[in-house]
Amino acid sequence: MFKNKVFENIFSLGVSQIANMAFPFITMPYVSRIIGPEGYGILNYSTAFIGYFVLFILYSFDLSGTKAISRNIKDKEFVNMAFSEVIYSRCILYLISSILFMLSLFFGKALHKDYVVSIILFVGLISSVFSPQFIYQSFQDLKIFSKINLIRGFINMILIFLFVKTKHDYFYIPLFTTVFNIFINIGLFGYAKRKYSLKLIKQPLNNVFGVIFNDRFIFISNVIGAFRTTTNTIILGFFITTKEIGYFTTSINFLFVVVNVFFIPISTAIYPFISNSFSKSVEVGNDVVKKIVPITIYFYFFTSLCLLIFSPLLITFIFGNKFDESIKILQTIAFVPLTMGLCNLLGVQVLLNYNFDKLYFRINLFCNIVGLILNFFLSKKFGYYGAAWNLIFIDVLTIVLCFYFLKILKINIIKWKYFSPIVIKSNLISIIKAKKLN
Length: 438
Hints:
18 helices; globular
């Protein structure tokens, strides 16, 4: 039986993400002044490109694998089979990615300027094959991530100060990231196998491809969802200078510092909690969602408001006066934490837990096709401001469509009395005091 570890996991993931971001915050003022906007542009362009391979290798298993295991956590045979299917599938996806990456190096002109950075980042993708997040997430045991990331962040900070001395030393940053990711993920993978007595069962190829095929809708939804960030950067590369990309990606990366610290811990921790609630009954799961909706909306609205108000102070303090142009961009996208939080709540937490994978996929596909077409026009016409507006537009369109289809399906996730601060406090206390999930 599980103890309710939702808030414990949110806290642990929050500490983990703070560690991931706090140490870069310390190094950012130093690094930004050495490598400048152009160096940041090179790093961020390569990172955005390699990000597609990360999505491909991770596939949808942090969602589908977590949901399957958390709903059958007591069935040891099922857990081992699901665990093995994920790992073998990722191995196949990594081999396919290797072929695609080599082709992109030969034919992708944009990568020729910084192919060393791209190669370093791609080598690090072996860590994605053994990424154990879905395992720890399924067992609602995420405390270890905070400890590991504190140690990694401190060592990485020291190495950056020691090795990054000139504007040509920017390649050390992805190098350190690659090395740490490989060792940490493989180590956590081995530890999870021992702790939960997991067995890696050999999977036939037809079974592996069957798993990949069955999860295609969630995977494609994740990929096209990534268009909201990475594709903006890729498209901008056709219309603006590397220096201007540096301005845009600085604001985007700072935004996702906020998202990683506040958004990811909450969404990651509540997903298995909601999924387990739906395993009891649809009614129980729906009631849990209704209680969580107002809590997340208030929290993300306050976070976005703070980001809007304090953007000038934060950008100037961290990056220096050379990045003043990033302030207006960050203010334009300040409410993305709120819109992104609503997209995740309606799509991942609700539609996927109701098993509407195809609907989730179709909504994301439509919104991102519209956003992709519009992004070319806006980026060409308005530069990085156009890309920023497009980011907001896709989120808002997704939210509207999710609400529309939930209404058609007669799924009501809004209970207005739960928006009362007094009721929110009561619901928080009841969740914290809950001793068991089943």
